Hints:
By secondary structure, the protein is an alpha/beta fold. It contains 15 helices and 17 strands.
Amino acid sequence: xxxxxxxxxxxxxxxxxxxxxxxxxxxxxxxxxxxxxxxxxxxxxxxxxxxxxxxxxxxxxxxxxxxxxxxxxxxxxxxxxxxxxxxxxxxxxxxxxxxxxxxxxxxxxxxxxxxxxxxxxxxxxxxxxxxxxxxxxxxxxxxxxxxxxxxxxxxxxxxxxxxxxxxxxxxxxxxxxxxxxxxxxxxxxxxxxxxxxxxxxxxxxxxxxxxxxxxxxxxxxxxxxxxxxxxxxxxxxxxxxxxxxxxxxxxxxxxxxxxxxxxxxxxxxxxxxxxxxxxxxxxxxxxxxxxxxxxxxxxxxxxxxxxxxxxxxxxxxxxxxxxxxxxxxxxxxxxxxxxxxxxxxxxxxxxxxxxxxxxxxxxxxxxxxxxxxxxxxxxxxxxxxxxxxxxxxxx
Length: 395
């Protein structure tokens, strides 16, 4: 287990706290506060422990330039109302003025820094920048699960120079996602969706060593179907991954994992087409593309979901943003929620978006705050920024 906030004496210590405050903001108004709300418990715990807390985070992709619409000031205004202490804001980062502001903080006070990605050195994990950023601090706490797979200055670089640990959110995420295969009951069913196979190459490979059933839907299923000589029309296909898919099908057979693919599809000539048709995969029209799983596939997938004791889902079953192609995603999510006996974990931005769209949050054991990070963790090699933090008992 990694060192966490219970392993340090924070009294009068200057703490650099990396959070993931990358929330959607439109015209200066925060559209979803979920990620900020998830960070509040760690902030309150450090305040209670009399730390001097300096928060660093990113927002969007300013590419090393100051972009006013990507300022963290709206986030600062929101956090200020949520904390029982003085909260300050600063544009000064990794320089003498920042060091002075950090020194002036009193115990239990919080300073929030401006968007760290205004500096190009952040994403290149520049060593000198990392050193300057770490300079005034005693302890580094990583609680930005959503960026823990990034080798950036504020997630990875600073931990070389400071005593480091993980925050409460990262600890919770790891508790569900990192240990799920060792601690969960069988049968374990993984449901993968989304557009492309190449985004989930290592995930599929790793899951076939861990799960009892692997369900593949969404656009990525068509590459598997084509690898088995199925007719996929104009559906999205990663032609470079056909051999990989064939090998994964063989691996599933060898590992006695039930690999389920769609057997029918809701199709159209394009996403915006008014004409929608239903096809079995052996008979798909060459001018049509699959945009959602069909009712036979929904029934097939539900049968395995109903038996599961552990369910992991990452990715939608179709283009759920369009109502006419949303039934598959909605029905599979409802089937997962209706399995009352299973541990149910969801990850991936599109997945969480769909769960929130259909108001199904209540039915999941855990909704991951990190899309790319949760996917990376399912590859089986941990996350680069967390891997660098020492385990409990290590000096």
